[in-house]
């Protein structure tokens, strides 16, 4: 079937070696980003690299090294699970960071949450004022 | 070739883990520490994956999934409690 199985083996080995090195460098890039970036939001941007692309590259290298077909669905399930959980935790951390003001506003190019927050605060103030008026009248 | 790859990835992951631990120790806020701990768990999962790939076994796969579950639950829980605790004093 395969004319040169050794060549195919070498190519698969090389591809998986490149995947492993790049996946490890993703972790290194995340650590450098954690150390160098100024605030929580930009650190979150750096932290997602090993969680998604790094894990994808490393799981792909596992699948390439094992050289069987049945492991690919298992690895895909592990990666999709990570894809489902990472945005949820990032959303929670980012929301808590925004609420506790762990961010540099001047570094944001667009703050879409601020209008919503101000609208909610205005509505709360108005309802409070209405309550006060009813009570005094 | 696998020996070289193992050395390079070990050095990269060790430096990355050191950086994440420095951020955990230094981080100005609790959320920075949570984020750095999440990255440290991702680095641990990466090391487990590289072990599986180099030695050609699948023993660690459930551990990788469990590590990602622990990171998810941990960061979500801590973020939730941070939001609750910091909100209380600001309310009149």
Explain what you see.
Chain A: This is Sodium:proton antiporter. Chain A: GO terms for molecular function: sodium:proton antiporter activity. Chain A: It holds the Pfam family PhaG_MnhG_YufB. Chain A: Keywords: Membrane, Transmembrane, Transmembrane helix. The complex is a heterodimer of chains A (137) and B (92). Chain A has 137 residues and is an all-alpha fold. Chain A has helices spanning 5-36, 40-66, 71-99, 112-136. Chain B has one domain (1-87). Chain B is 88% helix and 0% strand. The radius of gyration of chain B is 17 Å and the shape is flat. Chains A and B meet through helix 1, helix 2 and helix 3 of A and helix 1, helix 2 and helix 3 of B.
Write a compact overview of the structure shown.
By secondary structure, chain A is an all-alpha fold. Chain A has one domain (5-108). In chain A, 82% of the residues lie in helices and 0% in strands.
Which characteristics define this entry?
heterodimer; A: 137 residues; mainly alpha; 4 helices; 82% helix; elongated; B: 92 residues; 0% strand; Cation:proton antiporter (chain B); transmembrane helix (chain B); MrpF/PhaF-like (chain B); sodium:proton antiporter activity (chain B); transmembrane (chain B)
């Amino acid at each position: 079937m395969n004319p040169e199985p050794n060549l195919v083996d070498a190519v698969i080995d090389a591809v998986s070696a490149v995947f492993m090195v790049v996946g490890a460098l993703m972790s290194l890039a995340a650590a450098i980003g954690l150390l160098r970036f100024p605030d929580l939001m930009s650190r979150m941007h750096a932290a997602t690299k090993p969680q998604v692309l790094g894990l994808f590259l490393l799981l792909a290298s596992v699948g390439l090294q094992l050289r069987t077909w049945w492991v690919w669905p298992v690895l895909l399930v592990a990666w999709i699970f990570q894809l489902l959980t990472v945005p949820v935790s990032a959303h929670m951390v980012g929301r808590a960071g925004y609420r506790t003001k762990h961010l540099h506003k001047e570094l944001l190019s667009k703050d879409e949450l601020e209008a919503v927050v101000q609208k909610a605060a205005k509505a709360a103030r108005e309802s409070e004022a209405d309550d006060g008026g009813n009570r005094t009248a | 070739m696998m020996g070289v790859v193992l050395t390079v990835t070990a050095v990269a992951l060790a430096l990355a883990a050191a950086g994440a631990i420095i951020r955990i120790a230094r981080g100005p806020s609790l959320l920075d520490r949570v984020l750095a701990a999440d990255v440290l768990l991702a680095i641990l999962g990466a090391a487990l994956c590289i072990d599986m790939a180099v030695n050609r076994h699948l023993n660690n796969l459930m551990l990788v999934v469990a590590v990602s579950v622990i990171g998810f639950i941990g960061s979500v829980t801590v973020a939730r409690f941070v939001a609750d605790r910091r909100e209380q004093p600001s309310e009149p």
